[in-house]
Amino acid sequence: MKKWVKRWAIGIVLPGILVLSACGNNSDSNTTASSANDGIKERTIKTGIGNSEAHPQGQGMNKFKELVEEKSGGKMKVQNFFDATLGDDLKMTEALQAGTQEVTTPSTSPLVGMVPEYGMLDFPFVFNTEKEADAILDGKVGKQLLERLPEQGLVGLGYWENGFRQLTNSKHAVKTAEDFKGLKVRTMQNEVHLDAFEKLGANPTPMAFSEVFTALESGTVDGQENPMPTIVTQKYNEVQSHLSLTKHVYTPFVFLVSKKFWDGLSEEEQKIMREAAEEAGKFQRDLNRSENEKAIKELEKAGMKINEVSDQEREKMKEIIKPVNDKFAEKIGANLVDEMMTELAKVRGK
Ligand code: TK8
């Protein structure tokens, strides 16, 4: 309910904000250097995310705001919008391309229409630990993926964490690969996820994030999959009875800036943005990881039935899904996928 009310309000307020921020970005022309803050102009940076302010992603955005405002001596202002009030991941990313919004930190999964290579991060069961995910994302492979963004009108300043995804549903505990059969599951708008759930015998429906709660509540779908902090902050336990710790895939968030906006920034301003995104990202990842364990306890208390999935069953699921990964590896470019697997082997060897 609350979300809809907010969205209505935004529908009225937003056009005004757009006009204001457009003026703010264009009105002041470059002046010559004369003080320490020369390269920094008065600016308003509008950001939006799908999750709530309480989610580690929301807390990370608040940290970003704090850092940008501090580093710019209060000249650069950050205005954060939560709960998809500016739209879902895809819509906000398109707004960045158009230059009507400055920042968003979407999951990489819905961006595969723009950067198909991001699909390789969607392969289920590729990462086993957060450490492995960090090594790939912060390393050469992650960097190469960021380099695909500018041609799409986007600048990527690094990766934050969404996390390992777990399955919830209203029907039964999912302990084995067979238990997926017939379950209607909401997936992100991403072909790899769609095909993987189909292979497992589930009935997947791709859907934007802000529609998930209502779809679960009305029974349009039986279940969904998301990392623990999202399951807790979206209160999915109110409409889902089972949580199965499938840990089937890791999803990052990518910190995106509108290239149109970025290109108009001075080097000093770009540096402030870069540093703030990175520092807030470290804070966000730590918080996300500590929330994981807390969330499980909280949901158990709230009455959710929680089950582990054995390594043996996870291996079976991995085997069933393998043809999907192979098909997309071919499509995406086997070289980059090979590079990721080689890097992962190195991390595991350490
Ligand atoms: C938030 C999304 C979300 C993602 C999803 O905007 O869609 O399920 O996991 O957290 O990026």
UniProtKB/TrEMBL annotation:
It comes from the Bacteria. Transmembrane segments: none annotated. The keyword Signal applies. Residues 1-24 form the signal peptide. GO terms for cellular component: outer membrane-bounded periplasmic space. Residues 273-312 form a coiled coil. This is TRAP transporter substrate-binding protein. The keyword RNA-binding does not apply. GO terms for biological process: transmembrane transport. Keywords: Coiled coil, Signal, Transport. Belongs to the bacterial solute-binding protein 7 family. It comes from Peribacillus cavernae.
